[in-house]
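EI: anyone free to look at a 65-residue chain?
SC: sure, send it
EI:
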Amino acid sequence: MQNRKTDAGTSIKGRVVINPDIKFTDDDICCLLLGLNMEQLVRDIQLNKGGKYDELYVKETSPCP
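SC: here you go
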């Protein structure tokens, strides 16, 4: 087991073991990474409160005269 230093200078001691036989769904991965299921993520992107997901939308450009 290795000790790793964090940015705060404290040590983390531990090991994560993932069973290779477990099959994660897209919803599982989304929930693990973002804390939202896929339905919630899509709803958040559609609502785009506060412009959080502005970079996901195509910006319209004005046509050339």
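EI: The longest helix spans residues 38-47.
SC: 👍
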